[in-house]
Amino acid sequence: MPLSEFDLIERYFRNCGARREDVELGVGDDAAILQCPAGERLVAAIDTLVEGVHFLRGCPAASVGHRALAVNLSDLAAMGARPAWALLALTLPEADEAWLAEFASGFAELARLHEVVLVGGDTTRGPLCVTVQILGHIQGAALLRSGGKPGDALFVSGTPGDAAAGLALEQGMLAAPAQAQYLRERFLFPTPRVALGSVLREYASACIDVSDGLLGDAGKMAAASGCGADIAYEALPVSQSLAQAVGPERARELSLTGGDDYELCFSVRPGDLDRLLTQLPPQRWGYTRIGTLRAAPGVQVVRNGAPMVLTHAGYEHFARSR
Ligand code: ADP
Ligand code: MG
């Protein structure tokens, strides 16, 4: 007997995620009722994943559930906000129970980790598409893209490029190296940097999450701040797994241009640097200085003191391009 929409919601989406006292009314009525902590402001973001566009057909359902929430958590992390509640609009070609169970568990596991609960949504029939809206709250100033100034130090968390290699492995476009599983996991189960974003409110002048590639997203943050950025090629953090999989040159290129990492890129005023580095040790918090904001617009990658030019195929060293 096919699962009714009511049964589907009851089975997989009621009590999905953490338990929260601030949910006056969750899944089941016409709308949810939530209590925002007194004196804090609501922070909201939404993201859609379309099969064949944002995830591969036949991709593990747990990964789809995880990523649909992770990309939203990453947006809140970039604001320095505390995530609390999520809504899920799910369009399914059929009520495949094995798929749904896996999807819901991938979503719920990450939700519990961040004390987030699913409080409502919508379920429709059609080509597979997942939209998650996240709601959170913040006390005091948020981390904006626009707060950077020339001279601010530029940082990135984690090792960007890993997820792009993981996707290439999933697509069979890259031969599997010894640590293929690590790279695959970085694509399938990204780690939103919620704790880092929250503490950075005390240190960073601007912040953005890296979803479309470090170069592009650092450029967006710099432009929103009315400046540009110099990135030091040699400083780009690259994981051992990525370097082994694609070689050190291609690894750095992927760290600049690969997408889907969900790391944080942020800037810090010179006067706040000592405090940042002593109070949030980079090794413990997993971030690296990669450059500096500058007055001139655009992002320049500097290698051995010379700017590199970026081409459609990737980039080449400036000196060798002519
Ligand atoms: P309505 O017709 O009023 O929109 P629905 O039948 O769509 O009601 O939904 C019933 C309840 O189930 C609502 O509380 C709604 O928020 C919740 N819900 C529906 N689909 C989902 C889903 N995919 N995930 C979480 N909650 C859902
Ligand atoms: Mg509905």
List keywords for this structure.
322 residues; alpha+beta; 60s Ribosomal Protein L30, Chain: A; Phosphoribosyl-aminoimidazole Synthetase, Chain A, domain 2; 2 domains; eight-stranded mixed beta sheet; four-stranded mixed beta sheet; 11 helices; binds adenosine-5'-diphosphate; binds magnesium ion
Give an overview of the whole structure.
The structure is a single chain. The chain is an alpha+beta fold and 322 residues long. The chain has two domains: 5-138, PurM-like, N-terminal domain (60s Ribosomal Protein L30, Chain: A, 2-Layer Sandwich); 145-307, PurM-like C-terminal domain (Phosphoribosyl-aminoimidazole Synthetase, Chain A, domain 2, Alpha-Beta Complex), CATH 3.90.650. 34% of the residues lie in helices and 28% in strands. It contains eleven helices and 14 strands. The chain has helices spanning 5-12, 61-79, 97-113, 162-170, 180-188, 194-200, 214-224, 240-246, 248-257, 273-279, 282-285; strands at 23-25, 33-34, 41-50, 82-92, 117-125, 129-138, 153-157, 204-210, 228-232, 263-268, 287-294, 299-303, 306-311, 314-317. An eight-stranded mixed β-sheet has the order 8-10-7-11-9-12-13-14, with helices on both faces. A four-stranded mixed β-sheet has the order 3-6-4-5, covered by helices on one side. It has a two-stranded antiparallel sheet with strand order 1-2. α2 packs parallel to α3. The chain is globular. The relative contact order is 0.15. The structure holds adenosine-5'-diphosphate and magnesium ion. Adenosine-5'-diphosphate is lined by residues 9, 13, 27-30, 88, 90, 118, 120-123. The site of adenosine-5'-diphosphate has 13 residues, from β4 and β5.
